[in-house]
């Protein structure tokens, strides 16, 4: 779909592309590298390619098959970018007869797309521009005359090209679900694309219904008997606050403090006991239902999840559950990633405390730890790019470059993406995962803290319990979990619905009719991960970027569950490169590029001749 010309073209998926890349993120990265005129383009230019892509199993009966990906060159990392969203929008797109949407160019005025039962339309969105995501959802449903339409939209932050702008979908009545990371909302805004509305009356075909049903019936007791699934079902991701705190994993005061008594007030259990959570909801085909609902300003909205509770709570020294429900709602309303928002505000607070940022920079605002009203005000300013909020809306790396004065030292990011809410001093493999992730600091690509909590994945040869404080032997394990994450994201499967890898292979085979064994899937996962790495290399990413802030390398905490620990990154990185068959500079070697069938892409990116 070319918004510059208004031309809409429908293409069929080629079997060989599905065979090599599955779907979801696999197809998205392939399409972007093929279609982008130059990987070094400005991410906010019309030349960037924005891809919405469902997974190979999205919309099927398989548990957790709700996810889709939004990918493009990132304005936050200036390299690879992607964000993942669960809920119902992806299955609805599949039911409308499409696997994905590829957006090129820039519309001359605001538009939205309406996709329904094999038809795609570009519609005027002039009256929607400036609306928040909730207002946008309401307006589009009213215009179309169908309350069942699923809408993915940006808010004012995306319109104003905030580098930390997100995309919201399944916005009402109990949402939204958020695609938060790497600024995909800004790319959408740069194209004058306000929303994509989808409606479908079809069904996702399953090749062998009986065998799929048989596998699922055996899997359900296994999935629901795990302690993690039980916590998520009862309290959502907020139910893990206490456990992460005890590990010394939950960040406090911009990752500088190991203890904070107020955490007890903002656990998922506390939210439930105080009656703040009013309902439970679930994504498509999900038995776990970790999606909890609260009421804010008269709306039923998604309850704050663990990452939001930490990034806008403990990271800022705030322990008020009612404030957290409000601030989560505000970020959703304006379309801001809560992780990046909290980390950027924490950066500003620490710099203000140290005298590196003053009231002259902030327009008179005093930035103090624990100040709820100031945080709420800053989010309003960030969402609409007002005053100092316009600086913060750039994300902490770019904001620190604007301010200067040595402030970048206090910005907790990797490759430009703000750190998630898991301190790598508590789970050292997470430090390696952050350093090597293709989209910058990333807790979900690999989810390695689960392994360091004691999870074993026998199908991937992780048989023994892993010591969270050791650095030895983690290179190959982190790489393996990252590769497996590419498979899950190409399938459209949620990692919180923990299906054993061998069963994923079986389910894929019986849903699609295309036989894949586990080794086949792992090779595809490696192909996808390596292709993203090649894209990043074309954008100047090297070994020096495969690191984490020096705070985690040199500054141990003085108290808490990870007291006296630092991350020994270099030996893990060396082992990782060797396992991935990359050279000492982190560049995939020629033989692995050829083995994975990526020579034509490496050539297009200018890495091979």
TrEMBL record:
GO molecular function: 4 iron, 4 sulfur cluster binding; electron transfer activity; metal ion binding; oxidoreductase activity, acting on the aldehyde or oxo group of donors, iron-sulfur protein as acceptor
Signal peptide: none
Cofactor: tungstopterin; [4Fe-4S] cluster
Keyword terms of this UniProt record: 4Fe-4S, Iron, Iron-sulfur, Metal-binding, Oxidoreductase
Domain named Aldehyde ferredoxin oxidoreductase N-terminal: residues: 2-202
Pfam families xrefs: AFOR_C (PF01314), AFOR_N (PF02730)
Top-level lineage group: Archaea
Family: Belongs to the AOR/FOR family.
Protein name: Aldehyde ferredoxin oxidoreductase
Organism: Ignisphaera aggregans
């Amino acid at each position: 779909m070319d918004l510059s010309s208004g031309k809409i073209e429908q293409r069929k998926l080629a079997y060989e592309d599905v065979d090599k890349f599955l779907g979801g993120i696999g197809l998205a990265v392939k399409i972007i590298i093929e279609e982008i005129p130059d990987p070094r383009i400005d991410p906010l230019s019309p030349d960037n390619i924005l891809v919405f892509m469902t997974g190979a199993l999205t919309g099927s009966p398989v548990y957790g098959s709700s996810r889709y990906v939004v990918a493009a060159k990132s304005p936050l990392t200036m390299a690879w970018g992607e964000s993942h969203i669960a809920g119902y929008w992806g299955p609805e797109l599949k039911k409308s007869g499409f696997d994905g949407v590829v957006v090129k160019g820039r519309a001359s005025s605001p538009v939205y797309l309406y996709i329904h039962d094999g038809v795609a339309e570009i519609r005027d969105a002039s009256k929607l521009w400036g609306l928040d995501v909730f207002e946008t959802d309401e307006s589009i449903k009213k215009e179309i005359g169908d309350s069942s339409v699923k809408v993915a939209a940006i808010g004012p932050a995306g319109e104003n090209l905030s580098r930390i702008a997100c995309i919201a979908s399944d916005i009402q009545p109990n949402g939204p679900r958020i695609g938060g990371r790497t600024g995909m909302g800004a790319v959408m805004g740069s194209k004058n694309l306000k929303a994509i509305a989808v409606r479908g009356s079809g069904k996702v075909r399953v090749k062998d219904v009986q065998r799929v049903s048989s596998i699922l019936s055996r899997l359900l007791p296994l999935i629901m008997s795990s302690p993690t699934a039980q916590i998520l079902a009862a309290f959502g991701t907020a139910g893990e606050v206490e456990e992460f705190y005890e590990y010394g994993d939950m960040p406090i005061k911009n990752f500088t403090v190991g203890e904070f008594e107020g955490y007890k007030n903002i656990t998922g259990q506390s939210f439930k006991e105080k009656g703040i959570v009013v309902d439970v909801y679930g994504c498509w085909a999900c038995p776990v239902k970790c999606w909890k609902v609260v009421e804010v300003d008269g709306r039923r909205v998604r309850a704050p999840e663990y990452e939001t509770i930490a990034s806008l709570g403990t990271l800022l020294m705030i322990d008020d559950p009612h404030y957290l429900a409000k601030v989560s709602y505000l970020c959703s309303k304006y379309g801001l990633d809560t992780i990046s928002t909290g980390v950027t505000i924490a950066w500003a607070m620490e710099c203000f405390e140290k005298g590196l940022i003053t009231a002259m920079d902030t327009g008179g605002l005093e930035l103090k730890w624990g100040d709820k009203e100031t945080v709420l005000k800053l989010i309003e300013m960030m969402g609409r790019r007002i005053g100092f909020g316009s600086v913060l809306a750039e994300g902490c790396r770019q904001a620190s470059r604007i301010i200067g004065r040595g402030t970048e030292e206090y910005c907790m990011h990797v490759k430009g993406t703000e750190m998630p809410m898991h301190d790598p001093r508590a789970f050292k493999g997470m430090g390696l995962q952050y350093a090597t992730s293709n989209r910058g600091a990333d807790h979900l690509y690999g989810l390695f803290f689960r392994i360091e909590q004691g999870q074993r994945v026998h199908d991937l040869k992780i048989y023994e319990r892993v010591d969270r404080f050791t650095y030895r032997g983690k290179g190959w394990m982190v790489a393996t979990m990252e590769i497996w994450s590419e498979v899950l994201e190409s399938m459209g499967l949620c990692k919180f619905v923990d299906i054993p890898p061998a069963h994923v292979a079986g389910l894929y085979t019986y849903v699609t009719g295309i036989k894949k064994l586990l080794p086949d899937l792992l090779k595809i996962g490696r192909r996808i991960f390596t292709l993203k790495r090649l894209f990043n290399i074309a954008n100047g990413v090297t070994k020096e970027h495969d690191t984490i802030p020096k705070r985690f390398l040199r500054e141990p905490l003085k108290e808490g569950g990870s007291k006296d620990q630092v991350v020994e990154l270099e030996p893990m990185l060396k082992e990782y490169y060797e396992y991935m068959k990359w050279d000492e500079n982190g560049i995939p070697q020629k033989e692995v590029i050829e083995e994975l069938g990526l020579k034509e892409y490496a050539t297009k990116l200018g890495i091979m001749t």
